[in-house]
Design a protein that fits this description.
Blueprint (H helix, E strand, L loop, with lengths): L9 E2 L13 H7 L9 E2 L10 H14 L7 E5 L1 H13 L6 E5 L2 H7 L7 E3 L2 E5 L7 E2 L11 H18 L1 H8 L6 H4 L3 H14 L14 H13 L6 H16 L4 H12 L8 H9 L9 E8 L2 E8 L1 H13 L1
Parallel strand pairs: 3-4, 4-7
Antiparallel strand pairs: 1-2, 1-3, 5-6, 8-9
Bound molecules: nicotinamide-adenine-dinucleotide and zinc ion.
């Protein structure tokens, strides 16, 4: 189908039919046999570069050309960078028009498309600009992942691992049973992973407390991601979070780290990036979930028992970072 060749492009679809997240591909196609022919089709190059003021301007300009009025939904088909940016543009257009997401990456399907956080990067810092704007619907079609490069599949896999670890030993056991995260192996776990995120987001949509647990692994993960972008050799978001979770387990979960980390070593299938701790710490200090300049971290007291807002000192970070580099 056409749809496979135009992935990670955004479509602006002025219709108001989508109100229900329980769509399947057949249902969409049945409703929109010619949906690729809608007049307002806006190809966008995905990637972190889109999450910028220039990217938003391009989407606003397209919305203007399409004459998107108040209450008219816009839809995005693409990875997390596309849904983050279109979400931002839609949340500010005429003080907010509804959005519908059709994620095409695993990161998008289990994480970025859900929960209503929109985000842009600024001056090299990840997700510093953003709004809350929950989608009307998210349509998840796992078959769309068949074309996804292995590295990107692995990136989403680490968000699924994160959801399992913060949720319950049962969820973790299902994830830990997967030795090689192929699409075939992980597809049956996608809907549970979405459900874990949605459950947390529904309890705390504006991240007053509980929702912070979704940041597990992300303090170090975001720093590595920003560092790798700044070096011109970007590592995928989820892979950085994978390294970040190993660091966080080693730092905050001595009772379970030795049982869990070997699974990560197998999934990461690569050594830790040899970054001096002193080069990562400044990125961590700027992480937006900190309070002032104090770095706050999520730790797991046990599988399924995360604790948030745990202060982290530079000396502790450095010591554990050097430990994981040596391991
Ligand atoms: N808003 C949130 O709550 C939230 C949560 C997690 C991540 N994010 C953000 O999402 C972004 C990462 O998302 P991502 O990994 O989807 O990045 P992405 O959008 O850059 O997509 C990754 C790559 O996959 C390609 N691609 C997309 N779909 C494909 C398909 N089906 N087949 C083949 N290739 C395909 C893209 O062109 C791109 O090169 C980050 O910017 C992160 O900050 C946001
Ligand atoms: Zn993430």
């Amino acid at each position: 189908m056409e749809i496979y060749t135009k992935l990670n492009h955004s479509i602006i679809l002025p219709t108001s039919v989508f109100h229900d997240a329980r769509f399947t591909r057949d249902v969409i196609v049945a409703r929109y046999p010619d949906w690729m022919d809608v007049p307002h089709w806006v190809p966008l190059e995905g990637g972190e570069g889109l999450k910028s003021w220039a990217g938003v301007e391009r989407i606003w300009a397209a919305m203007e050309r399409a004459g998107i009025g108040r209450g008219q939904p816009v839809a995005a088909v693409g990875g997390g960078t596309v849904t983050d940016t279109l979400g931002f543009a839609a949340s500010t257009w005429k003080r907010g028009v509804p959005v519908l997401f059709m994620p095409t990456t695993l990161v998008g399907m289990v994480d970025a498309a859900h929960g209503g956080k929109t985000a842009l990067n600024f001056h090299g810092f990840k997700n510093i600009l953003g709004t809350h704007h929950a989608p009307e619907a998210v349509i998840v079609v796992p078959e769309w992942l068949e074309s996804l490069p292995e590295q990107e599949l692995r990136s989403g896999w680490f968000e699924m691992v994160k959801h399992a670890l913060i949720s319950s030993p049962r969820a973790w056991d299902r994830v830990a049973a997967i030795r090689t995260p192929t699409l075939e192996a992980i597809a049956p776990l996608i809907s549970e992973s979405c459900a874990i995120k949605l459950d947390i987001v529904e309890q705390d949509p504006f991240e007053q407390g509980l929702r912070k647990v979704l940041n597990f692994g992300h303090t170090v993960g975001h720093a590595l991601e920003a560092w790798s972008n700044a070096k011109g050799n970007p590592l995928p978001h989820g892979v950085c979070v994978g390294y970040g979770m190993v660091w966080a387990l080693r730092w905050g979960s001595p009772a379970i780290a030795d049982d869990i980390i070997p699974h990560f070593e197998n999934w990461l299938n690569a050594d830790f990036p040899r970054v001096p701790a002193a080069e990562l710490w400044p990125w961590m200090v700027h992480d937006k979930k900190n309070s002032g300049r104090e770095v706050r971290e999520v730790v797991l007291d046990a599988v399924g028992a995360p604790r948030w807002d745990v202060p982290l000192k530079e000396s502790e970070f450095v010591e554990t970072w050097e430990h994981v580099l040596r391991a």
